[in-house]
Amino acid sequence: MSQPSRFRYEEVADFVAGLAGRGALRPGMRAPSLREISTQQRTSLSTAVQAYRLLEDRGILEVRPQSGYYVAKASPALPVPTTTRHSIRPAKVELSGLMLDLLEHASDDSLVPLGCAIPNQRLLSSSKLDLVLARTARVKGGQCNTYSPPRGEVSLRLEIARRALRYGQALSPDDIAITCGCTEALALALGAVTEPGDTVAIESPTYFGLLQVLRAKRLKVVELPTDAVTGVDVDALGDIVASGKVRACVLASSFSNPLGCTMPEENKRAALRLLAKHGVPLIEDDVYGDVHFGEERPLPFSALDTHDNVIYCGSFSKTLAPGYRIGWISTGRYMARVLETKFATSLATPVLTQVALATFLSNGDYDRHLRRIRREFADTLERMTRVIEQTFPPGTKVSRPEGNFVLWVELPEPADTRLLFAEALEKGICFAPGVVFSASGKYAHCLRLSGGHGWDTRIDKGLRTLGAMARKASKAGVR
Question: End-to-end alpha-carbon separation of the chain, Å?
């Protein structure tokens, strides 16, 4: 019996589905436009529309308003990491000796770079920015060879304020102070609202650089249970601040490091109400906000704050110029104290780089650059996730961030990534062991992988080797 004839739109749909199945079109990539596919397949535009609607129904394509059709992201086979419960008792910050080892090896070009979250120079607009810097030095070199005003160069502060308006922050240049990276911004913010011996509530796991700052300032911490998707547990936060033990709270605005989580807007508002009610200031770290994979940039806490209770910290280190060490802080009523501390510690931020960066931001180059690196980072994390699914041991869990360029991987216990770290270095691979992201040495069975270098055969091979090592260690651990 002969097979029934197939409609032309079904044949076109199968052709596009085949491209996706063979990897020619990868998840998150833009599909050929309706006009392109109709021309290529020598069919009518209406047939192409029918084919794409069929692919949309099958979950192969997804339509983005005013943007076109994209290959839908396949649902990852691995679950997300679990939420760890913590004691609400304040504790000293105990730093792992592995942190210094990690920082030392992360700059070693001979190692597969899965360690520190630093973008590869290949992905940054370094050549364009270098040209702007050279031109600025040539034209304004004499003017820039001096100390900047206490708040920093007004031209850069103006550009930062203009960008902030796009995501709900109504700032003037006088509300902003330029800092030597986000680390100094966090240190200044903590210095403005705490004294040595105070307790600060933080996400867990959290950025290890923050832990270094907290320890240097002799502050205690309470680690908040943090979901890999929705962020900090608001109920737990409420219990902590109601106890009266916490002097300040530090949270990531969006796409936290290392979990990649983002609190829903209603949770952010609830957290702000709780903190304001108990007089606990919030310090927010928004270094990854511009690296969002969706259409909209999530609103930071400061854009939702109605109580003047948020100190905002940002930086260009994760998106454009890690070597420039330019960050900023918006402090509200704490500005005078922040500037006093800034003057006593680093005095000022270099003028030349500030002026060059202001020029780069003003001519639209930064926005074009962001669109490109967002696609690159999203594609890299997608590829890394697939390799983890294929090569890491059964029971592995992995985060699913909607922004930034790191993955948090939870191996089945009793895996110990401290041992795996040492073995990986011998194989020429660097990653970040989980214990460096905890104030109390938790997460020994977890690790963070950076996708900041993009995707190439070296990253692919290194990640597969690491997966095989983790699988071998897992089998040895259950015997």
Answer: 57
| Distance, CA of 391 to CA of 393 (rounded, Å) | 7
Together in a domain, 219 and 344: yes
CA-nearest of 323, 325, 268, 314 to 289 is 314
- Cβ–Cβ < 8 Å for 405, 319: no
Q: What is the pLDDT of residues 197-254, one digit of tens each?
A: 999 999 999 999 999 999 999 999 999 999 999 999 999 999 999 999 999 999 999 9
Let me know if residue 31 belongs to a domain: yes
The residue with tokens 């199945």 is 21
318, 117 contact by CB (below 8 A)? yes
Tokens of 295: 């259409």
Are 296 and 349 in a shared domain? yes
Question: Do the beta carbons of residue 374 and residue 292 sit within 8 Å?
Answer: yes
Distance between CA atoms of residues 12 and 17, nearest Å: 9
CA 204 to CA 92: how far, in whole Å?
14
Q: How remote is the C-alpha of 365 from its chain's centroid?
A: 21
Note whether 381 and 317 are same-domain residues. no
pTM (2 decimals)? 0.84
| Structure tokens given for 254 | 């969006």
